[in-house]
Specification:
Mean pLDDT: 94
Shape: globular
Low-confidence stretches: none
Structural class: alpha/beta
Number of helices: 19
Radius of gyration: 25 Å
Strand content: 15-25%
Number of strands: 23
């Protein structure tokens, strides 16, 4: 039977519960255990697919086409776990399931209530993941903060699960903030005490307390937290602010967290080590031989989490080239206001990521044109590919005012248009082209050179596609259609024959990049950017 680790958070949000859970997963895998991770989100949306990135951050897409929380991206980057639609549980998904059952009469006339029906449904979803994925340990992260009304059903469900499973099969880890008061020169443990008190009021006793802090806790501070929070001093773990998230598993190991977990869960496995992780990831991050500046031209730049997987994949690509990434975040609306040269002159690579709506589009088109005309390595992703073909159509093929029907329904030259199967769809949620699809690469192209194979599979999230009506005219002008989804003859990858490195893809390669196995497109993009610097 799988063992469970429940991860909760207190004091403030954005403490890094996802990184904590991911790092614990990495530690357990180093012992030879198999893991999976679940994110329980308390919002009523069925999934984050219809949310604005400013509300929720990035939407992470799985192979099976689920639109999920960005923490699932952390889970996949840190561990070997493969995320599915079942690994993200939302309040909306739970209530939708319960109400559907009620309408069918499955509750035999009973009054449907939060307890037991909602909590039972949560427990069923959690246990289903363990049953289907057959792993040694399931880590369950509860979103939000203890004390939030929205999180209460999830907290009650894990309280019940802990009782049902027993001490050897389930433990609770609580992540809190221990603020450092600079003027007083000391850390304050009181917020953690209050947070744990709130957790205990609903019947959950933490086994381990992970303390996010700017300054490492002293032995006295740990003992004080242990005393007032009713845990052993050895169960109070430092989580000092790190320069890179990839340091956290190593930091936890130094704190003895892996041994502590094994003892509490009665797991008899070898100590394990993170030698490869330290050598292949941390050492390269800390001591790079080169530096490369990459501009990301987006429309959600103000929010760090909106392009989380993009930024991480760029870091992975830099690691593979023994380089330090200098990231320049450029708002495409600023380009529209002040001109492209002000923001992009001197950068060694330009990446245009995905997005929806016409805000900032002309700024992205200007960025693509700047990269094309100045032989700057360019990587376009999803909307970034659509931008590239629109720009090429306008300025190379002389198709004046060419556009996408997403931005101008009446454009004379609809270079990008709605997928045929999307035309009758009215509902917005989970109705895009989602998940992994096969793509065949043309031999002799830069895309084929990057992947070193002809058949690939990548994840998608979009409604609009390149219009094949314009393929011939653009080919004659030097655009290469190097990747095709043959089943429907959809263009997946384009590149420019007369450019050092200009590739744009309809899919999202960033979702499959890992620090130890960087995605080939990001790896080659950074390599090209470094070459341009010589």
């Amino acid at each position: 039977m799988s063992k469970y680790i429940f991860v909760t958070g207190g004091v403030v949000s954005s403490l890094g519960k996802g990184i904590t859970a991911s790092s614990i997963g990495k530690l357990l895998e180093s012992k030879g255990l198999t893991v999976t991770l679940i994110k329980c989100d308390p919002y009523i949306n069925v999934d984050p697919g219809t949310m604005n990135p400013y509300q929720h951050g990035e939407v992470y897409v799985t192979d099976d086409g689920a639109e999920t929380d960005l923490d699932l991206g952390h889970y996949e980057r840190f561990t070997n776990a493969k995320m599915t639609k079942d690994n993200n549980i939302t309040t909306g998904k739970i209530y939708y399931s319960v109400i559907t059952k009620e309408r069918k009469g499955d509750y035999l006339g009973k009054t449907v209530q939060i307890i037991p029906h909602i909590t039972d449904e949560i427990k069923h979803h959690i246990k289903k993941v363990a049953l289907n994925q057959k792993v040694d340990v399931v880590l369950v992260e509860i979103g939000g903060t203890v004390g939030d009304i929205e999180s209460l059903p999830f907290l009650e469900a894990i309280r019940q699960l802990r009782l049902e499973l027993g001490h050897d099969y389930a433990i609770n880890i609580h992540v809190t903030l221990v603020p450092y008061i600079k003027s007083a020169g000391e850390v304050k443990t009181k917020p953690t005490q209050h947070s744990v008190a709130a957790l205990r009021q609903i019947g959950i006793m933490p086994d381990i307390i992970v303390c996010r802090t700017e300054k490492a806790l002293t032995k006295d501070a740990k003992e004080k937290i242990a005393l007032f929070c009713n845990v052993d001093a050895g169960c109070v773990i430092n989580a000092v602010d790190a320069k890179t998230i990839y340091e956290v598993p190593v930091s936890f190991k130094k704190e003895g967290l892996d041994s502590l977990l094994a003892r509490l869960l009665n797991i008899k496995h070898p100590d394990g080590n993170l030698t490869d992780w330290e050598r292949n990831v941390l050492k390269r991050i800390k001591s790079p031989s080169h530096t490369v500046e990459i501009a990301v031209v987006g429309k959600y730049i103000a929010l760090q989490d909106a392009y989380k997987s993009i930024y991480e994949a760029l870091i992975h690509g830099a690691l593979a080239n023994d380089a330090k990434l200098v990231l320049k975040k450029v708002d495409s609306e600023d380009i529209e206001k002040c001109g492209v040269e002000k923001y992009l002159k001197g950068v060694k690579g330009i990446l245009v990521p995905g997005g929806f709506g016409n805000r900032g589009i002309e700024g992205k088109i200007a960025a693509s044109k700047f990269a094309r005309e100045n032989n700057i390595p360019y990587l376009g992703i999803c909307l970034g590919m659509q931008i590239a073909v629109i720009e090429f159509a306008r300025n190379v093929c002389s198709l004046k005012n060419a556009n996408s029907t997403e931005f101008n329904k009446d454009t004379k030259y609809p270079i990008v248009s709605l997928l045929e199967e999307q035309k009758e769809i009215q509902e917005k949620g989970a109705t895009m082209r989602l998940g992994a699809y096969e793509c065949r690469l043309k031999k002799g192209t830069k895309a084929h050179e990057a992947y070193r194979k002809e058949k690939i599979s990548e994840r998608h999230r979009h409604r609009y596609e390149f219009n094949n009506k314009y393929r011939e005219v653009m080919q004659k002008k030097g655009m290469v259609f190097s990747g095709i989804y043959h089943k429907k003859d959809l263009v997946e990858v384009v590149e420019l024959a007369a450019h050092p490195w200009f590739i744009a893809c309809q899919f999202h390669p960033e979702f499959q990049s890992r620090p130890e196995t960087p995605h080939p497109l990001f790896k080659n993009f950074i390599k090209a950017a470094l070459s341009a610097d010589k």
